[in-house]
Structure formats: structure tokens, C-alpha cells
Amino acid sequence: MGTLTSALATAVTDEYIHLQQPIHELYLRADAQCMHIFDLDAGDRIQFDLPEQQSIDLLIFNTEQQLRPELLQALQAESLLVANAARATHAQLNQASTSGQRLKQQLAQHAIQPDWLEQALTLHSPGKSIFHASAAIQVIVFNTGLDMNVQQQYCIDEVPVTLFKAQPVHYYLPQPLAKPVQEILIPRASARTYSVKAGQWIQIIDLSGKQCSDFLAFDAQALAQGQELGLDAMATRTILGHATPAPGLHSKFFASDLQALAEVVQDTVGRHDMFLSACSPKFYNDSGYFGHISCTDNFNQVLQPFGIQSRNAWPAINLFYNTFVEPCGAISMAEPWSRPGDYVLLHAHRDLLCASSACPDDIDPSNGWVPTDILVRIYDQDQHFPRSQHYRIDPEELPRMTQASGFFPRIQALTSKISEYHGYWIANEYDGWGAKAEYLACRERVAMIDLSALRKFEITGPDAEAFMQYALTRNIRRLAVGEIAYSASCLETGGMVDDGTIFRMGENCFRWICGDEYSGTWLKQLAQQHGYKVSIRNSSQHIHNIAVQGPHSRALLQQLIWTPEHQPSVEKLAWFHFTLGKLGGTDGIPVMVSRTGYTGELGFEVWCHPSHAEQLWDAVWQEGQQYEIAPLGFDALDLLRIEAGLIFAQHEFSAETNPYEAGIGFTVPMKTKEEDFIGKQAMKNQAPESRHKLMGLVLEGNEAVQHGDPVYVGRFPVGVVTSAANSPLLQQQIALCRLAPQYALTDTAVEVGQLDGLKKRLKAKVVDLPFYDPQRLRVKS
């Protein structure tokens, strides 16, 4: 937990503090192969939940920056801290890999001398270990260790950390992203101005959670010449093509001269207001609170010395303000989603005069009823912070920020059309190609796509087979080593948690490849609940992968991948099997190659450690030139998978959809799998005749339909569109849809309803899936 500087700490307001929800526990974590800093006050307790066969190294400093390990005391006899010279940390530092370089950068950033590590203590005890701080201390945690190559299954996993406060606190301040050049505290119900140079970074932090902060920015050079050139909502919406109000933040904010003032780089909340003004005297007067202080009044006061004209209501970026547009167009609001320590990071494009407020609104939920403080940190222009958005797996945890895969430097050089997908940056399409050309390359030649956003989990231990037999729908016992199965994982209701592929790496060793990071959390909870003796580790940061797909994919890869005698060659690799080998020969990088894909074409996936990703990309790209290889973006992939009738999370399936209704009933061997598995009874209780069924639609005309559009027969809906695309193959609009069983028949005439389903109808015909290669001969060739 970060601490305010002494000057700022004394300035934190305590008015109305008793109305706030005090923070007794903080749910933190130590990410894999990273260093983390936790500040403890006297009497605080810190808990580490260590995975089996994993350790962490600790350095304990007092407030005078002296090493004082005796100030952290174990509350359990088995939670022993032993002198171990930080062997795991030194091992990572000595690696010539990205993880080693990243750790060295962290040490340098926090001025930690490498020789201090000789005095580190090591915690080996698996499970929960609790320690007590006898004085105010800083605990530096090294969750470190060697990289895992793709042919191994032991990896460093994240360590959950819980901080129990002896005295409840009312704010949480994250550690600085770098050394700040300014820190500006904005006490509740006030506003402050601050100057920012072009290229500097502005971090606006909600200290206590649920506190709105309006942001203004003006071109400093224009102000010096007597011109007010500030944030302009109309210019921003016009340039970005986002005129309809929606909660969130624009990627950039422009002035009326149509040039950018600031850019949003990181956001840990995702819920903000961009279409209302800062609160004004009129707002409070109309509500009967005459004379109530407002953000507009506060801005007018602090901007007056700069010659900026006062306003009756200031247009502003309303950070953390939770407003939304109802279907009827009315604007509503609720308590903010921001939590203690949440922030927005902006990058200044010009020299700016900025103003930030801590909103005084205490008459409605806009600040959680209790106005609190805001902190602004400014970082130097020499720093670099990656663009990222937030996501959370569990409601109480710290936000996780968007990652770049090991292949991303190569992708970024080929396209500017980048978006966030499941916590990773991915390419939508590539400059000079486009989705249609990329699609055709995959269907006719060969294409490759970065699929590192898939999550990977290593499941090992004496009960691994029995556990996966219970957790997944497929009959795992039938899998041979080297074989893969596509499976669903379900809830007790039969609804799907996820879909994915299960790799049998050994007799009691499996690798689960899926789409949702929560799958790992769910598997761990399931194993603990039922007492299975298994280790479940998240290897997603250790294994990144590209898919090489298309008719020439085998010819391309068999020239690149060397396999030992006891492993099948790429040429002989069977469908839904994998092989282990090396890139280019016996001295090449370790890789795993699987005959899998998501396109309906002959194809493979190649898996490697992120440190080797660029080398793998370059080799495939260079060798693929003779086959006119193309990079493949997610727009083209979506088109390919819809034609192939392949399903996608939150489109064809969700926690309310079982595998039969999602179109993958073949993954549920209800008759041949004798053992119980999660969701079996619920699906068994469902009458097959009553199930909705996933079918295809071919539409008349070229008008686009969308996910969620209802499907009608006559006046009433009988199904819903789950995915849709304009198919180059059929030269028609096609869609996947879930239909009531009475209408899930080939050649049934239906209509897709738009504009409430009654004002606009698009005629369609029901067809079987897949649209492309019905016998799946190409993918099996």
C-alpha cells in the first residue's frame, strides 16, 4: 500500500470521514516474475497464499530505509522465513530474457542494490502464511524464478496478498508508476491548477473510491497570447467519429483547432462521463441547495489568475462519474465504479495548464454521498508507460492491465488498427491488406495470427486425470499422451464457463487452453472444494502462440520445425494432436506445434515462450513469402470462424447456455462417459426435444444483421442472432442463430427483426452448419 508524502498526508481532509466505508482489508497480489512493494503500519498483518512448490523472497525495511527483517514476525510456526540468498531472484536476473530485463529495470527504478538481495529472506511454506509488522515497515516481495519453456509445465504463478489493517484507513494510494515530478493533492470540494509540459504524464487518482474528478486543460502557449484554447467536446467527437454519448473515455481529447491536447493511456475504471458539464450553481439551486459550492465555482476561482473567463457551467471530462444513457435517451447516474486507488493516466500532447477538481456533490450518489480527495501525480516526459485498459477476474482484486504479447512488436510495425481483446492488444486488420485480403489468404494460401490472448493452465498431480474428468465434459481418460480434445467446462446448471482444448502432456499432466482467465480461478476453486490433489498454474505469461492456417500451412511449417525421433513430424501430425520440437534444428528455440485452429482450414498453432516470439514470427514470415503469406487480423478471423460454424464466448455461449444449445453437443458424451462431471445432471434433466438449437441463416440482400437481433416467424420471436458476417464465399449475409426447436429445420423461412422487430424485417432461410466445407474435409486433410 503506497503512502502519501508527509506534506500531502497532513493535508488529507478528515471532514465527514466517519461517513465513509473504512478499509479493513486490501486484496492485493504479487504478479509472476515481478517485484512488488507493500507498506505496512505498526500492527498490520500481511498474508501470502503461496502455490505448491513455489517461493518468494522478501526484503524488509524500516522507515529509515534500513534492512530490519526482525520487524516482520510470523504468526504461524510453519510460516518460516529462511536465509536463502534470494536464489530464485538471482536466477531470474541472470536470464537473458524479457523477464530478467524487466526485473533489473524494477530494481533500478526503486534504487534497490542487487547486493541487498544477499540479505533477503525466503518463504517456502505453501498455502496461507500470515506475518505481523511490529513497526512501520516496507516489505519488498520478489515473486521470481526461471522462465518456463513450452515443453515444461512448472511455472511461476501469481501470489495473492491480503493486507489486514490494524487501524482502518480511508484511502489507498498505489505505488508511483515512476518517480513523480509533481504531486498535487486536491482536497474534497475544491479544485487546483497545475502546469504540465508536452510529453509529460498526468495520473489522476481516486484515493478513497467513488469520487468524481472533473478535468480541464488549456494550451499554455495560446493562453500566453491571450487565447483560450481548451478541451472541445464537439471537435473530439467529430474527429473520433463517436458523436453518440456513451460512458467511458475517448482515446484522445482535442481542442477547437482540431489538434490533440491529451491522450488517455491507462484507465483502471472504464466508467466515466463525457457528455455532461461539471456541477454548477444552477444544478444545486434547482435541487433546493442554494449556495452549495460547485466544481464550476471552484474552477472559476482557480482559473481567474490566468485570465480565463468564468463560466456558468464548465464543460469537462468527468472522470469516475457514472452516468449512462437510457434506451429512451434520458441520462441517468449511479454511484461511481471507481475503487480506492483507481486512476486514469493521460499523456500531454502540448504544454498545458490543467485544472482538476474533487467534486463537492453530496446530495446524490455521484460521489457515493461522501466527497473525498483526489491526488494528481505528474511524471517526466522521459518516462514511458504502455497503453492499457483494466479488467478484473474477481470483484475485489486490483485491476489487471492490458498486455502486449511477445509478437506485438512485429504486429505493431504492420498495422495501426489495434484494439483490446481479453486483456491483450490484438490487430483488427493489417495496413495494406484488410480483412477481405487476409481472409482470402487463409482460404487460398496461408496466413498467421497472434492468438496469445488464449489462456493457458498447467494441471498436474496424482489426481489430475480424475479432476479433469470431473471438470470437463469430454472423456479425458480416452486421451493418449500427445492427443488434444475440444471440450466445454460447465456449471452445475449446465451453463458453460468456457470452451477450450485440453492437451495431454503426460499420464497425469494436462494443459488447458481456453478463452477466459477466470477459468483458472474456477478450476482452483473446484479442486479445493472437492479435495483433488492437483497443482493448477497459470502459464499464460510463459506461453504465447501464433496460428498458421491455410492450405499451405503444412508445407510451410515442415520446413521450419525439427522434431526428435520420438515425436511426430509436422508432416505426419494428426488432426487434434501435438508435437514437441525446435525451430530450425536441434539448437533452435523450443516449440510445441498442434494441429488445431479456428478457421475451418488445414492449420496449426505454434507455441513458444514470449522471449522467443519475435524469432518465431520472423522465421514463419520469411519462409512464408514463397507462399504469399499474409498476417491475419481478428476481423478476418471472425469471418472465417462464422463460415466454419465455430462458436465464440458471449455470442454463441454463456453461463446461461449449455453445450447442446451452443451447438457443441458432441463435446458431451452423455452415454459413454460413465463418471459424473459438472453440469451432467442438469443437462440430463433437460428434454432434448425442448432445446434451442444453433443453426445457420442465409439472408436475402446485403443488409447487415447484428449479434442480438431477434429472429421472427410472424409477429413473435423464435430465436436470436448470435454472430453475423458478409461471406465472400457465399457472397451473401450469413449468421449463426439460436432457434426454438420447432423452427430449427433446414429451409425454414424466418425474418430478422430490427427497429424493435416490427418496423424492419430482413428475410432469411435456415441452413445447416457449417456454411463452409460441411464435411470438414479441408481441416482434416
Description:
This protein has 781 residues and is of the alpha+beta class. The strands form 9 sheets. Strands 11, 13, 15, 16, 20, 22, 23 and 24 form an 8-stranded mixed β-sheet that branches. The protein contains 16 helices and 44 strands. The protein has 5 domains: 23-169, no CATH class; 180-391, no CATH class; 403-453 and 543-629, 2-Layer Sandwich (Gyrase A, domain 2), CATH 3.30.1360; 455-538, Aminomethyltransferase beta-barrel domains (Alpha-Beta Plaits, 2-Layer Sandwich), CATH 3.30.70; 692-778, Aminomethyltransferase beta-barrel domains (Elongation Factor Tu (Ef-tu), domain 3, Beta Barrel). It is globular, with a radius of gyration of 28 Å. A hairpin with a 4-residue loop joins strand 41 and strand 42. Helix 9 packs across helix 14 (634-643). Helices cover 16% and strands 33% of the residues.
Quaternary assembly = single chain
How would a textbook summarize the main sheet? 8 strands, mixed
- Total separate domains: 5
Overall form = globular
CA gyration radius, whole angstroms: 28 Å
Share of β-strand residues: 25-35%
Q: pLDDT under 50 segments (min length 5)?
A: none
Number of helices: 16
| Number of E-state strands | 44
The average pLDDT is: 93
How widely separated are the two ends?
56 Å
